[in-house]
Design a protein that fits this description.
The complex is a heterotrimer.
Chain A (H helix, E strand, L loop, with lengths): L3 E4 L3 E2 L4 E8 L22 E8 L2 E8 L8 E7 L4 E9 L4 E10 L1
Parallel strand pairs in A: 2-8
Antiparallel strand pairs in A: 1-3, 3-6, 4-5, 4-7, 7-8
Chain B lengths: L7 H9 L17 E2 L2 E2 L7 H8 L7 H11 L10 H5 L9 H4 L2 E3 L4 E3 L1 H13 L9 H12 L15 H12 L9 H5 L6 E2 L2 E2 L10 E3 L4 E3 L1 H11 L10 H13 L9 E3 L1
Helix pairs in contact in B: 3-7, 8-11
Chain C lengths: L2 H19 L18 H12 L4 E2 L3 E4 L3 E2 L5 E7 L9 E8 L6 E7 L6 E7 L5 E9 L4 E10 L7
Parallel strand pairs in C: 1-9, 3-9
Antiparallel strand pairs in C: 2-4, 4-7, 5-6, 5-8, 8-9
The chains are: A mainly beta, B mainly alpha, C alpha+beta.
């Protein structure tokens, strides 16, 4: 499905709070636009959910509406607990899923 | 030449800025946004728009850099070759490619830009179908290739065989056209830094192309922008890759000499 | 007479011509078709659906927006909530609402104590100048709210 890029520091100290950034390519079709040629409404197709898991549980989650810009970008924070992957799962209307993860080393 | 912040209204927005959005600029290149009296479109953008460009992770066009890198090494066509087959995966040739193009092609007897070079190589060397202009693949490959020159100064050759094409490009830039009877330079030389309604007029520099335009919500080529400008003055847009546009591309690239390649930039 | 001179004299005419013909009169084209439907009442209703009858309070939450957005397609915004983000005292969720878009809902963000810091940045669409509202639900049941205005400019030229 869509293509994504994510970023977190390679290595952090235990307990440190670090910033995570994620961007996914997606038109975020609002469902409110009309096709200029046919006059028909273009059906809504957006990414409606991003779930981020780390250390076996969801540390950050979000629900999105059509007012989120195309190619949605988000940045947030996570507290370092253990080495391992931070896993991102985006879900679009209709259930399509894009996954991406980034490994961090906790010293 | 430049009178930025003239709009009192917008001046406030620029001054307020959003430093907390700035993120971390990942790029190590030292970017030159001003060279002589020439200023990149970057310098006319708001701080918020600059911040999107400054952060490689936040710049949506970097998805295309990734895709383009994959296309560079992807075998395609009857010859069973990829770009990387001949040029290498980390091609040194790419390190200044965006600074030099368009170049004179003796075989064609005219200037050739990067998109045209890609398609020529695909057809002649790879036995592959040419990419469509403005297709995801063409944008990805050109963005990747130009991105390899990021931070290097624009430096096209306008000597020797390029002279008549450079002159033709300049003539096109200066020529009034369309129902509004306006030339490129009416806006982009005489009124750069002024506002046309709420939009800041820039110097029409090409160093950031292909650019991610907020208006388009996706990246686009320089020729797409040329077509847009032509339409805005109610002139007939020319074909992507037309001789006139390639000559104009040469002239505009020369106008931006010394400015860093920014591809993929982010603009309003 | 130099061309520069002609152009300066013609500038007003050029611009008027462009405005008059409608070339420049259209804002970010077709981002949302139809009329804007969100308003302060719709936002209040949407908030009530999330938090019930709880009272909202000011303070403890900041909403960062450009005063004037260069393009309504992509307006960077950030919300930060003051919280120790400990297991007993943390921000559970932040909701963002628009008072001027076709619908009031923009996004919901769910935090945990493992978030460490209750701050989120994103980019959102704004069809016109409007107020943006952010609401934070705390683990202790309290609700903080903030509202800020953004001006969205209408473009002059396109391409």
């Amino acid at each position: 499905m869509a293509k994504a890029r994510v970023k977190a520091p390679k290595s952090v100290k235990k307990g440190e709070v670090f910033e995570v950034k994620a961007l996914i390519s997606h038109n975020m079709e609002t469902g409110l636009r009309k096709d200029k040629k046919t006059g028909k409404t273009i059906p809504r197709k957006i990414i409606n959910k991003l779930s981020v898991t780390y250390g076996g549980k969801e540390v950050f989650g979000s629900d999105w509406h059509p007012a989120v810009s195309a190619n949605p970008y988000v940045s947030f924070f996570v507290r370092a607990s253990e080495s391992g992957p931070i896993k991102f799962v985006w879900t679009e209307d209709g259930g399509g899923v894009t996954e991406k993860s980034v490994d961090i080393l906790v010293a | 030449m430049k009178k930025q912040f003239q709009g009192i209204l917008m001046g406030a927005a620029v001054a307020v800025g959003l430093s907390s959005f700035a993120g971390i600029a990942i790029s190590a290149e030292k970017m030159v946004y001003k060279s002589g009296d020439r200023n990149s479109g970057y310098t006319y953008a708001t701080k918020e728009t600059q911040a999107i460009q400054d952060d490689d992770l936040g710049n949506p066009a970097y998805i295309y850099v990734d895709d383009g890198a994959a296309l560079w090494s992807k075998v395609d066509g009857k010859a069973g070759k990829s770009c990387a087959t001949c040029h290498g995966v980390e091609s040194a040739m790419l390190s200044d490619l965006a600074t030099r193009y368009p170049v004179y092609n003796a075989k064609l007897g005219k200037m050739q830009n990067i998109e045209q070079k890609i398609n020529q190589e695909r057809e002649e060397k790879m036995g592959a179908k040419p990419y469509k202009w403005e297709s995801g693949q063409m944008l990805a490959l050109t963005i990747y290739m130009r991105n390899q020159s990021r931070g290097k100064p624009m430096n096209v050759s306008i000597d020797g065989p390029a002279v008549p094409f450079f002159e033709a490009g300049k003539k096109y830039f200066d020529q009034r056209r369309g129902q509004l009877d306006m030339s490129c330079k009416n806006c982009h030389e005489y009124y750069a830094g002024n506002r046309i309604r709420a939009n800041m007029l820039t110097e029409a520099q090409s160093n950031g192309f292909p650019t991610y335009r907020l208006k388009w919500q996706k990246p686009g080529s320089l020729h797409r922008r040329f077509r847009g400008c032509n339409s805005t003055v109610r002139a007939q847009p020319l074909a992507y890759g037309s001789d006139e546009y390639v000559n104009l591309e040469l002239y505009v690239a020369w106008r931006g000499r010394g400015l860093s390649v920014e591809a993929p930039s982010v603009r309003n | 007479m130099s061309e520069k001179f002609i152009t300066q004299n013609m500038r007003r005419r050029d611009v008027l011509a462009m405005a008059g013909t409608g070339v420049v009169a259209v804002s970010s084209i077709g981002l949302f078709a139809g009329d804007a439907k969100a308003d302060p009442a719709a936002v209040a209703k949407a908030i009530k659906a999330k938090i019930g009858d709880k009272k909202t309070m000011a303070g403890g939450i900041t909403l960062e927006l450009p005063e004037i957005a260069e393009n309504g397609n992509t307006v960077p915004i950030a919300v930060e909530v003051k919280s120790p983000m400990s297991s007993s005292d943390y921000v559970k969720a932040v909701h963002i609402y628009s008072e001027g878009n076709p619908a009031p809902d923009v996004a919901t963000f769910r935090f945990t104590p493992e978030s460490g810091r209750a701050r989120v940045s994103l980019r959102m669409r704004m069809i016109k100048s409007q107020n943006i509202v952010a609401v934070a639900e705390m683990s202790n049941g309290k609700v903080h709210m903030v509202k800020n205005a953004v001006k969205v400019t209408i473009g002059g030229c396109g391409g």
